[in-house]
Amino acid sequence: MRFFSRLFQLFLLLVIWFFWMNAWIVLDSRNEVQRSPGSYDWYTVWLVLWASVRSDGSLSPVLQQRVDAAISVYNAWKIQKIIVSWYDKDETYLEAMSMGEYMLSKSVREEDLVIDSWWYDTLASVQRAKNEFGVEKMIIFTQRYHLWRSVFLAKHSDVDAVWYSTDHHAYSVSDLWTLREMFARVKAFIEVMLLRSEQISWQSLL
Fold first, then answer.
1. Average pLDDT per block of 10 residues along the chain, 206 residues long
2. Rg (CA), the chain
3. Contact at 8 Å (CB) between 100 and 113?
4. Cβ of 92: how many Cβ atoms within 10 Å?
5. Residues 6 or more apart from 45 whose CB is under 8 A from it?
6. d(CA 10, CA 28)
7. Which domains does the chain have, with CATH numbers?
8. What is the predicted pLDDT for the residue at 188?
9. For residue 48, which phi and psi values (nearest 5 degrees)?
């Protein structure tokens, strides 16, 4: 009986820790999330984060929103680069390439587009933008459910980032996506606050 009691206490502690880390990320990034960029002209680099691509190579509704939002403001603001970022796992699941090809088909100039297919999560995408491409300020295109973690990771990578809402059309975020995002926040907290993920220095390309 004592064993099960201790097991329950451990489970309860883990649940409390789980929700505490989620709350920490939201509270830690709320000032950046609520901050208005004033003029987007100050932010000449735009980061479009990954989401799933269908098996036929077409963009999922969530990813379609992010990419369409970036395209919709492309001609309205002075932009040096649009970075589309993800790690392409194999030749049948080329997320970043699909995003890039879609943008090029919508008249985004090739010289303004960086298709970055080497890194595998949001933290790596932000750090690579900073260390590989020399980005210090950026606009992140993503949905509201994902914004807290994105801004949190940018903040702790010493990148001045603000969020551009892509929630312009109705879409359904399933309970599974919400739960996945909560676990992803825990991973982000552990990487940034406990493991202190090291940043790799790269030659600036911008």
1. 83 94 92 66 75 74 83 74 71 62 86 77 85 86 86 90 71 70 92 70 36
2. 18
3. yes
4. 9
5. 79, 80, 81, 82, 83, 129, 133, 135, 137, 138, 139, 206
6. 26
7. 37-194 (3.40.50.620)
8. 92
9. -105, 110
